[in-house]
Design brief:
The protein is an all-alpha fold. Helix content is 88%, strand content 0%. The chain has a domain of 58 residues. The radius of gyration is 25 Å and the shape is rod-shaped.
């Protein structure tokens, strides 16, 4: 029965990990869009003499968006790492339980 509970927990953690990875792809796509927008604004300003795009409201918006997305990306990556560690711990627990069960069966002759 314990093995079924552990397998269910592992499945749930794997599902959570997959959802986080999906979110991570979405954030990376949004980061790409923000970067492209900033590059377009930088290009526009580069053709002008003595101009600084960092004061442009659109540039500031995209830069802030990029910074926020980077923070979210870092958070999700740390959550994925934590889940992977939990899954690894569950695998170790299952392996140890199997070894203990086999040893007990061999010792008892069953």
């Amino acid at each position: 029965m314990a093995f079924l509970a552990l397998a269910s927990q592992k499945s749930l953690l794997t599902l959570q990990k997959n959802f986080l990875q999906f979110q991570l792809v979405s954030i990376m796509n949004q980061t790409h869009i923000a970067g492209a927008q900033m590059a377009a604004i930088e290009k526009e300003y580069s053709s002008q003499e003595n101009s600084d795009c960092t004061e442009d409201a659109d540039y500031v918006y995209w830069k802030d968006m990029d910074d926020q997305l980077q923070t979210e990306k870092d958070s999700i990556e740390s959550q994925i790492t934590a889940i992977e560690n939990e899954i690894s711990g569950l695998k170790t627990l299952v392996n140890n339980n199997i070894k203990s069960s086999c040893t007990l069966n061999l010792a008892s002759g069953g």
